[in-house]
């Protein structure tokens, strides 16, 4: 237990200094730590089932091969110890395995230039390859004497945008989720952050789903003239982010009359059971449809849960979902605590108080706009607009601190002109972190809040970082922050650690990534002596910037990868 404080400081490692970062083709880690690069894009999800780019590391897979490999765009993830069922049975005093488990990992996105080696798809096969590198991987992983490896498991699998899924909760049978084509619900996409549930499942969050849709028949002007208020609010346009799926796969064509509601099937939180590969992923509609960044669940003393969620867009909102019943009761009878509950959106008052505004059809203001709770949940952003939620500076991850407080990363907002107390900078180039404390043990309708840290205040210090994104708090009060957005002072995106027990937050840099990457996704083993963090889109796929995880050679295509982190003296991560 005392290993937690191997030094006098809770966060006692020697930080990476600005001057330590010399060659950004490889990561720089604190001299007290070591890393193993792990499961790069293209790793077989089970040993021996497909070639890991045998021979030529620059050979691209077929779409069929990609479906059996770890995808690209590594983002949110979670380690579930292989004996999670015993931990459930015996509670926290049971010491779960820290050397073997199921790893669920999101594959948020991969640009065509990186995945296909060209700007757009030229065939359905190209589209399928792009689709199959997106999604989620479920892997069995185990520590050996020489490091971590992927092992065989009947539950190892890839979930892509073409995998059968089901809808659950109040909107599940809404006509707005049915197409004239009658196609079954398939898949998940742009899986950004994530969070575990107390009952041992994985929640993956669909963020920029709008970017995969487009119109094969309309010009920009024609599409903008025809698009609905809801399509505009969710950011659909005629060519999306340039993936071009809609030219070969009608599901993603916004103007194909047979698939008019396919667009509503994305933007959800999706539950995956890492221990049962036969179960379909389930889209939990009670948690609302928006650009879900990530989710963090807190348990109240009465056994109910609160899920804290950000909607990552400039001027979008912070949300909370609360289950109506204690989760153990609901799970025991075979239902889901994520299907029956209330959804709220946050209003931050300038005096440090806040209110959770319920998104309910029982509110006359919302009943005037929506026909039922299902439609309200499908267009949750529009409902939140009506209630006067506070527009934020891009809400990214949430994490529950040591004392039940919630940290919200606000990554930046280049377009903010009008400040409010919770978003005080105009423009907000560097981002900030807000700390909220809920009334009523996470079950209340009010909260208090404070600015925990303005990233701009770290400028000119050794701990400088900007664009906070990933957030994970351990049980001792260490807050891990990953950045996304290019860093000052010649740094690259980084992982930094803050002792939240201290009055003044001080960031200590544990890791600096490689050129043009993003440091995101974090999970640790139950003993906290091993952690996993992702380097996403190294070099933006350009081999002249980095070849990571390969050593610098100028030609090998860089691959999104996980880093396994260990403190050299075996103490807990962050110490
Ligand atoms: Fe997928 Fe908002 O980062
Ligand atoms: Ca993010
Ligand atoms: Ca960000
Ligand atoms: Ca990002």
Automatic annotation (TrEMBL):
Pfam families: PhoX. PROSITE patterns: TAT (PS51318). Signal peptide: none annotated. PANTHER family: DUF839 DOMAIN-CONTAINING PROTEIN, SLR8030 PROTEIN. This is PhoX family protein. It comes from Glaciecola siphonariae.
């Amino acid at each position: 237990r005392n290993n937690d404080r191997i030094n006098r400081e809770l966060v006692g490692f020697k930080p990476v200094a600005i001057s330590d970062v010399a060659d950004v083709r490889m990561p720089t880690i604190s001299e007290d730590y070591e890393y193993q690069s792990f499961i790069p894009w293209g790793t077989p999800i089970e040993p021996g089932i497909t070639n890991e780019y045998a021979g030529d590391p620059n050979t691209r897979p077929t779409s069929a091969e990609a479906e059996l490999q770890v995808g690209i765009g590594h983002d949110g993830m979670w380690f579930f110890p292989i004996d999670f069922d015993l931990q459930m049975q015996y509670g926290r005093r049971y010491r779960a395995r820290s050397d073997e488990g199921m790893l669920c990992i999101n594959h948020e996105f991969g640009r065509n230039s990186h995945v296909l080696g060209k700007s757009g798809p030229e065939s359905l096969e190209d589209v399928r390859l792009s689709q199959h590198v997106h999604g989620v991987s479920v892997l069995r992983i185990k520590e050996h004497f020489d490091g971590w490896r992927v092992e065989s498991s009947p539950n190892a699998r890839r979930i892509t945008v073409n995998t059968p899924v089901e809808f659950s909760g109040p909107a599940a049978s809404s006509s707005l989720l049915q197409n004239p084509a009658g196609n079954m619900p398939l898949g998940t996409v742009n899986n950004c952050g994530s969070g575990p549930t107390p009952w041992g499942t994985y929640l993956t969050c669909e963020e920029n789903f709008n970017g995969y849709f487009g119109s094969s028949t309309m010009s920009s002007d024609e599409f903008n003239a025809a698009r609905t208020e809801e399509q505009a609010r969710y950011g659909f346009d005629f060519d999306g982010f340039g993936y071009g799926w809609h030219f070969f796969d009608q599901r993603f064509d916004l103007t194909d009359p047979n698939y008019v509601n396919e667009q509503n099937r994305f933007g959800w939180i999706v539950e995956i059971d890492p221990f049962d590969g036969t179960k379909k992923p389930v889209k939990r509609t009670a948690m609302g449809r928006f650009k879900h960044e990530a989710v963090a669940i807190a348990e109240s003393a009465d056994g109910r849960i609160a899920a804290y969620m950000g909607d990552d867009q400039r001027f979008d909102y912070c949300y909370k979902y609360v289950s109506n019943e204690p989760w153990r009761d609901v799970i025991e009878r075979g239902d889901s605590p994520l299907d029956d509950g209330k959804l709220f959106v946050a209003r931050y008052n300038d005096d440090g108080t806040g209110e959770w505004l319920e998104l309910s059809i029982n509110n006359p203001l919302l009943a005037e706009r929506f026909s039922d709770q299902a439609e309200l949940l499908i267009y949750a952003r529009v409902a939140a607009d009506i209630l006067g939620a506070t527009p934020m500076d891009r809400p990214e991850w949430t994490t529950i601190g040591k004392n039940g407080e919630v940290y919200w990363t606000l990554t930046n907002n280049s377009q903010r002109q009008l400040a409010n107390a919770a978003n005080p900078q105009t423009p907000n180039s560097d981002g900030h972190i807000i700390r909220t404390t809920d009334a009523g043990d996470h079950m209340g309708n009010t909260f208090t809040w404070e600015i925990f840290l303005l990233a701009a205040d770290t400028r000119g210090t050794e701990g400088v970082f900007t664009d906070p994104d990933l957030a994970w708090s351990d049980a001792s009060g260490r807050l891990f922050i990953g950045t996304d957005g290019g860093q000052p002072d010649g740094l690259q995106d980084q992982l930094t650690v803050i002792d939240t027990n201290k009055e003044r937050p001080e960031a200590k840099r544990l890791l600096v990534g490689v050129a043009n990457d993003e440091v995101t996704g974090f999970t640790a083993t139950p003993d906290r002596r091993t952690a996993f963090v992702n380097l996403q889109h190294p070099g933006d796929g350009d081999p002249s910037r980095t070849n990571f995880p390969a050593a610098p050679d100028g030609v090998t295509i860089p691959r999104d990868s996980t880093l396994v982190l260990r403190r050299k003296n075996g103490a807990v991560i962050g110490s």
